[in-house]
């Protein structure tokens, strides 16, 4: 067996495995629970589900919310909380402009 054929077979096997696992990954991403504001990591960044509830926080600025934060991505995901979804209307003190 030539090196090119070995490389082709290895890459084909890796691609096949990736295609088999891809649907499961999407299902896992969609089934992530919403972040509980009472959770330790949420309290550490003062996360609230409604930005209006943070108006008394000194770090709060009007118009800042999860949906327009650089950490927020599709599927209500936040880079700070990879195992949870967050509310698009939420807010935390780690807000970063896009």
CATH level 4 superfamily of the largest domain: High potential iron-sulphur protein
Q: SSE string, helix = H, strand = E? A: HHEEE
Beta percentage is 5-15%
Radius of gyration: 20 Å
Distance, first to last CA? 51 Å
**What structural class do the secondary elements suggest?**
alpha+beta
CATH topology of the largest domain: High-Potential Iron-Sulfur Protein, Chain A
Main sheet: strand order? 1-2-3
CATH class of the largest domain: Few Secondary Structures
Relative helix content: 25-40%
Tell me the domain tally: 2
Q: Work out the number of β strands.
A: 3
Task: Sum this structure up briefly.
The chain has 98 residues and is α+β, with helices and mostly antiparallel strands. The chain has two domains: 31 residues; 66 residues, High-Potential Iron-Sulfur Protein, Chain A, CATH 4.10.490.
Question: Describe it for me?
Answer:
With 98 residues, the chain is of the alpha+beta class. It folds into two domains: 31 residues; 66 residues, High potential iron-sulphur protein (High-Potential Iron-Sulfur Protein, Chain A, Irregular). Helices cover 34% and strands 9% of the residues. The chain contains two helices and three strands. The chain has a three-stranded antiparallel β-sheet with strand order 1-2-3, with no helix packed on it. A hairpin with a 3-residue loop joins strand 1 and strand 2. The chain is elongated and about 70 Å long. The mean pLDDT is 85.
């Amino acid at each position: 067996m030539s090196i090119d054929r070995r490389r082709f077979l290895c890459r084909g096997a890796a691609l096949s495995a990736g295609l088999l696992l891809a649907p499961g990954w999407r299902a896992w991403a969609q089934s992530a629970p919403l972040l509980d504001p009472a959770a330790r990591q949420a309290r550490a960044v003062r996360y609230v589900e409604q930005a209006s509830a943070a108006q008394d926080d000194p770090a709060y600025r009007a118009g800042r919310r999860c949906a327009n934060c650089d950490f927020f991505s599709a599927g209500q995901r936040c880079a700070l909380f990879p195992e949870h979804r967050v509310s698009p209307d939420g807010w935390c003190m780690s807000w970063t402009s896009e």
